[in-house]
Amino acid sequence: MFPLRDSNRTRNFPVMNWLLILANALVFFYEVGLSESQLREFIFEFALVPARLGSDPETFAFTVLSSMFMHAGWFHFLSNVWILHIFGDNVEDRMGPIRYLIFYLLGGAAAALLETYISPGSEIPVLGASGAIAGVLGAYILLFPGARVRTAIFLIFISVVDLPAIIFIGFWFISQLFSGLAAIGSTATSGVAWWAHIGGFVMGLVLCGLFARRSRAPVEYL
Fold first, then answer.
1. What pLDDT, in 10s, does the model give residues 50-69?
2. Helix 165-183 with 194-211: angle, nearest 10 deg
3. Which of 65, 116, 150, 185 is most buried, by CB atoms within 10 Å?
4. What is the mean pLDDT of the chain?
5. Half-sphere exposure for 193 (CA within 13 Å, toward CB)
6. What is the pLDDT of residues 62-114, one digit of tens each?
């Protein structure tokens, strides 16, 4: 399943959400301009490596933040910023730009720390905005469970349906949870940090009530 758009209107321009998208884009295009050896060095220095963070957290704590703005390829980058574009504007609308930024970064930090806790000896670099975006999804499912998400479903053929946010995001989280549980103890690597997604999502659920302001008017859906 892939989201195409949501039905949720915003009352304010999502300035912080666009700044986060811009920050991700600037870092990614910087990566694209590097040679292969330079890119390896960049990833080694700024990506989160669970074993390294666990053994020397004071030295490598900055990678919890820096890794949130790095991506491993075009699909990784475009899919992340697209999902942030769809869901982040509404969450920012309810939190305000500064609260939203803090919320976003805390979700990404929770994602990194849970991934490090689950795989403390892993030397595989973890990078991407997915954990922080998972936090945004956690807030969205609480704030706008009835919003409709136009969704492309890829089976034998492509179909487009409108799903309630609680169904779309709920299915996404269950798939992450089952994939994460299946990955524990497995020697195979999928290349996806499932537990980072889970950690970010749960943190989004926990922090939503602290950061979101009360809605002063009924939510408008298209």
1. 999 988 888 889 999 999 99
2. 140
3. 116
4. 90
5. 38
6. 999 999 999 989 999 999 999 999 999 999 999 999 999 999 999 999 999 99
Kindly state whether residue 220 falls inside one of the protein's structural domains: no
Instruction: List Cα–Cα distances, 159 to 118, 148, 153, 156, 164, in angstroms.
Output: 36, 16, 5, 9, 16
The secondary structure of 77-143 as a DSSP string is HHHHHHHHHHHHHHHHHHH-HHHHHHHHHHHHHHHHHHHHHHSTT--S-B--SHHHHHHHHHHHHHH
CB 8 within 8 A of CB 162: no
pLDDT of residue 195: 87
Domain of residue 57 covers 2-211
Distance CA 141, CA 64 (A): 25
Compute the distance between CA of residue 135 and CA of residue 201 in angstroms, rounded to an integer.
4
What per-residue confidence (pLDDT) applies to 216?
Answer: 55
The rounded distance, in Å, linking the Cα atoms of 143 and 94 is 8
Residues with Cβ within 8 Å of residue 45, at least 6 apart in sequence? none
Any domain includes 132: yes
- Find the CATH number of the domain harbouring 56: 1.20.1540.10
Residues 6+ apart with CB under 8 A from 57: none
Number of domains in the chain: 1
In the DSSP assignment, the letter for residue 69 is G
Report how far residue 10's alpha carbon sits from residue 13's, in angstroms, rounded to the nearest whole number.
7
Low-confidence ranges of the chain (pLDDT < 70): 185-191, 215-222
Evaluate whether residue 177 is within a structural domain: yes
